[in-house]
Amino acid sequence: MLSHAAPDELNGLSKEKLNELLSTIDTEHEKVRELGTWRTRVKWLGGLKSKSYMRSHSLLVDEAADLAGVDTAPNSVECVLSALGACVTAGFVFNATKRGIRIYDLEVALEGNINNILRFLGLSQTGHPGYEQILLKLYVRADAETRELSEIWKYTVETSPVANTLSRQVSINPQISIIS
Amino acid sequence: MKSLPLFPVTVVGSWPRPVWLLDAVRKLRDAKITEDEFRELANSAVLLAVKYQEDAGIDLLTDGEQRRDNFYSFVVDKIDGMKLVTVADLMDHIKDRAKFEQILRGLDVPAFSIRNPVAVGKVAKKRPLVLDDYFFIRDHTTKPVKVTLPGPYILSRAAWVEPLSYLNYRLRDDLALEIIQILNEEIKALRDAGVQFIQLDEPTLTEVVHGQVSAETFMCAALLSRRDPEEELELATFMINETVRGISGVKLGLHICRGNWSRREDVLLKGGYEPLIPHLMEMNVDQLVLEFATPRAGDLSAFKEHPNKKELGLGVVNQRTEEIESPEKIVEKAKEATKYFDPDKIYLNPDCGFGTFSEVPMATSTVAFEKLQSIVKAANILRKEFGG
Questions:
Q1: pLDDT in tens, B154-170
Q2: Residue B34 phi, psi (nearest 5)
Q3: Which of A66, A82, A106, A107 to mutate to test the interface with B (most CBs of B within 10 A)?
Q4: Which one of A107, A111, A141 has the shortest CB-CB distance to B111?
Q5: Are A47 and A69 in contact (CB under 8 A)?
Q6: Over the stretch A22-58, which tens digit does the pLDDT of each residue have?
Q7: A98: which of A165, B231, B285, B290 is 20 to 30 A away, CA to CA?
Q8: Which residues does residue A103 pair with via DSSP β-bridges, in sequence order?
Q9: Is A1 an interface residue toward B (CB < 8 Å)?
Q10: CB neighbours of B73 closer than 8 A, spacing ≥ 6?
Q11: What confidence score (pLDDT) does residue B214 get?
Q12: How many CB atoms lie within 10 A of CB B202?
């Protein structure tokens, strides 16, 4: 997948910048504090559509037609899977690159099972409408033995911010402000 | 032409690649070895595949398709204007991505592992598709040789991806005509070089009738949006007949299976050949190389309305299982076929290749060898009984 890499690059990452980051970040307390807080603002677009803004980026979210949306964009629970997949993709590449391992191809396939979607629709009081299980499968072709790649994968999932968010009890603090 | 015994035993085409050859493929891709260095290794792999087949006692052998990535994508190295594109790279062009995801999930394969030949420019033959491969095996066996080629239907359907092909081929059929020309020339050259049997591979014909409704399949990232299956089969018949137009003096076969990309029977197509048979009878080929070793393939009675009109390459072993079918079981299947075909019109072969996709072989060489040995034993039993 990656070709014509600069000499300093591995897997599309600059080895020099990576080394610099790893050797200095834990002493930059202000930076570490900044990296510990993330923000998103979501604007309603009508119907079940919304647009999320994060730094200079944005992301459209809709709902599937089966759930009364118009299916112009992924829905929220798909975005959760995407977030997890993207997080472990980045994490795996990061951890493999730290070890000097070249990756040729990488793909992550996810599937999540909702406990009871009817709770979201207000049609049931049992269970909950969240994921109760997420299958997360990595496909990778890289210059390393199976054992090492499996170790990196295990470490990646253990240290994934999104995987940790999903698998630990996160305290959600809902607030409301009514604008007249 | 070298003569063949009654109930000739043959293979469908591919043989499992040795690990060192797969390693060489990757090294060639990364330019860590030269084409000449790869060719030497591929030659050795072909000789190994030939030895296995000869030692098993088969009558009509192939080079095991050792030089190919898979049965059809290898053409990109032989045809200008074609490029190997992974399904991962085609994802942005695929309309029915949800269906595609379902297929990938069922197969348990990543999109980056499936490569598709796509027409990105004007196509023209750069070098022989398989003729050079034939010259090599001809020098290393005294047995009759079968040469396999991807058929015009799968090639033209796989290669036309609208956003990538449109500039040179506004319609799929425009590309198809040029592919047909290339294949026709190759078949004539193979015939003139002394090939005894040329087999066209068209596995997606079963998908046309038995596949779920979808604009695309994994095999052809842009298989024609599903027009009426009858229309598709008429088109395929036209393409195949145009491909073999003006060709005589060589046996022509057509192989149609239900997919050979997974060892899981539950993800592969099921359904008998009945809907295809009327069209197959219109195709100007001598032999139909079909799979009948699994219940998914349906019954040989599919031929009851059209007995004996063509030869049958009867699939008698399942190349995906480790269990070695007994000669007695194979004999039973062959005898069932004699209800619809004269004995001298029946060849015995596995259902499909042992290594259709080089990185996903269906069997080890040992298992493949033992299955062929069992078919040979069955053939000997049948020859005694039917006077061959």
A1: 999 889 888 899 999 99
A2: -85, 170
A3: A107
A4: A107
A5: yes
A6: 888 888 888 888 889 999 999 999 999 999 999 999 9
A7: A165
A8: A142
A9: yes
A10: B84, B115, B116, B117
A11: 44
A12: 24
Q: How far is CA A8 from CA A5, A22, B28, B54, in A?
A: 8, 16, 23, 52
Candidates B32, B102, B112, B114: best to mutate against A (most CBs of A within 10 A) is B112
Are A139 and B88 in contact (CB < 8 Å)?
no
Both tokens assigned to B321: 């299982």
Looking at the DSSP bridge assignments, the partners of residue B119 are B82
Token pair for A11: 């897997």
Find chain B residues with C-beta within 8 A of A141's C-beta: 112-113
Q: Distance between CA B38 and CA B25 in Å, rounded? A: 7
Cβ contacts below 8 Å, chain A against chain B, sum to 21
Judging contacts by C-beta atoms under 8 Å, the chain A residues touching residue B111 are 107
Is the pLDDT assigned to residue B200 strictly greater than 90? yes
Helices A15-24 and A76-98 cross at an angle (nearest 10°) of 90
Number of Cβ within 10 Å of residue B111's Cβ equals 21
Please give the pLDDT value at position A5.
63
Q: What is the mean pLDDT of residues B115-131?
A: 94
pLDDT for B302-313, tens place per residue? Answer: 999 999 999 999
Task: Give how far the C-alpha of residue B291 lies from the chain's centroid of Cα atoms, to the nearest Å.
Answer: 12
Using only C-alpha atoms, chain B has a radius of gyration, in whole angstroms, of: 20
How is residue A19 written in tokens? 């080394």
**Helices H / strands E in chain A, number of each:** 5, 7
**pLDDT tens digits along A124-157:** 999 999 999 999 999 999 999 999 999 999 999 9
Identify the CA nearest to B23 among candidates B50, B45, B51: B45
- The 10s digit of each residue's pLDDT in B1-28 is 788 999 999 999 999 999 999 999 888 8
Q: Over chain A, what is the mean pLDDT?
A: 92
More confident residue, A109 or B361: A109
A107 touches B: beta carbon within 8 Å: yes
What is the distance in angstroms between the Cα of B90 and the nearest Cα belonging to chain A? 13
Per-residue pLDDT of B267-304, as tens digits, reads 667 778 888 999 999 999 999 999 999 888 889 999 99
Q: How many CA atoms lie within 13 A of B110 on its CB side?
A: 18
Are the CB atoms for B268 and B291 separated by under 8 Å?
no
How is chain A classified by DSSP, letter by letter?
---S--TTEETTEEHHHHHHHHHHGGG-HHHHHHHT----EEEEEETTEEEEEETTEEEEE---GGGTS--SS--HHHHHHHHHHHHHHHHHHHHHHHTT--EEEEEEEEEEEES-GGGTTTS--SS-SSEEEEEEEEEEEESS-HHHHHHHHHHHHHT-HHHHHHHS-PPP--------
The pLDDT value recorded for residue B161 is 87
